[in-house]
Amino acid sequence: MMKKTYLSILLSILIFSTACSGGEGPREVSAVTSSAKSTDYLSLMPEETNILFYANFRSIKQTSFGAELSARFEDEIGVNRDDREYRDFLEATGMDPEKDIYELWFGSTGGDWHDNVSGAIIRGRFDEKKIVEYIEEERYHRLRQANYRGHKIYNIEDNDRGNDDTEFTFLNSETVAIGDVEWIKNVVDLSKDGGKNVLSNKTMARFINEIPGNDQLWAVINLSEMTDGWTQKIRQQGSIFKGTKSIENMQSLIFHTRVDKDARLYIKGDFGTAEEAELLAETMNGFKAMAKLMVMDDKEAIDMLNGIKIKSEGSLILINTTVDKNFFDKVDEKRKKFGGGPVKLL
Question: What is the structure's pLDDT at 55?
């Protein structure tokens, strides 16, 4: 395996995960109360944030169901720890992706392509010197750096392969910010000066406060404040719901899940009017009824489908269900029966 593969792993980690490793803990903020939300890390997210995603990978991995998912999808997300290049990567950077990456906060303003600003705050165990040296030794990339308020903002040029540059900075040995330069500078400013952040955004703060404090995975999307380009892309994903404008009228979406021996999923969407929400709920329940007809000889499968609760309340759609090992086993069984392959993450 080429060294550039492990640089890609490193960059992917810096985009999709976060960790906490000792040292003084973050100060609490009064706006929210949960472990995922009662830290300064949300207060580093810009006020203009309209898309917010959080994942506590370490907590999920430590649960029985998280371990089951890791084993089930090992071919897709696993790492060959016996690979020499992987061992070289660990030795060079001092970072083990499977142990040292815990949490992620990703945010985006939801602007048009030319003015959208986004990035991630990552908590982990990072050795800036070793990581930078590793990248500098990588012959497939050029590393530039600029100073901003006492922090080095690194830029990895990747134009030779047609990719966008990657920019990031180390706020401290536990925290990395990666994203657009404007976003990174905003994060640095907030870390030093405080000021208005996503918790100052009344709409986003209200959505965030609806999420239970111990849920390890959640997302908030405020479409009402996003530009038309973004909202059209998101709403187009609902084109399968023919005969309803519910997706087009979607104003917000909240998702959260708690993982332990299973995963309890909850989704709430605001679709503008009670009529549209009711119509969409009926459509989704219709799909569920069709699925039940396809497995009518399997009581366990029917019980699982019955466990998916879909209802409307005013302009809201509420969906909740529980997913466990048996769910994936049953889906694999039915996919094989109907000619499909095993369940995949992507």
Answer: 92
Whole-angstrom Cα distance, residue 314 to residue 192? Answer: 43
Q: Which residues, 6 or more positions from 206, have their beta carbon under 8 angstroms from its beta carbon? A: none
Backbone angles phi, psi at 189, to 5 degrees: -60, -45
CB atoms within 10 A of CB 26: 17
User: Cβ distance 93 to 114 under 8 Å?
Assistant: no
* Helix or strand run (H / E) with residue 256: strand 252-259
Contact 138, 4 (CB under 8 A): yes
Coil, helix or strand at residue 180: coil
Q: Judge contact between 172 and 124, C-beta under 8 A.
A: no
Distance of CA 187 to the CA centre of its chain: 19
- Block means of pLDDT (10 residues each) for the chain, length 346 residues? 48 42 34 46 93 92 86 64 78 85 89 75 92 79 89 81 75 93 95 94 94 92 74 58 60 94 95 91 94 90 93 96 90 76 51
Cα–Cα distance measured from residue 129 to residue 114, given in angstroms and rounded to the nearest whole number? 33
First-to-last CA distance in the chain? 22
Q: Which domains does the chain have, with CATH numbers?
A: 3-200 (no CATH), 237-337 (3.30.1360)
pLDDT for position 283: 92
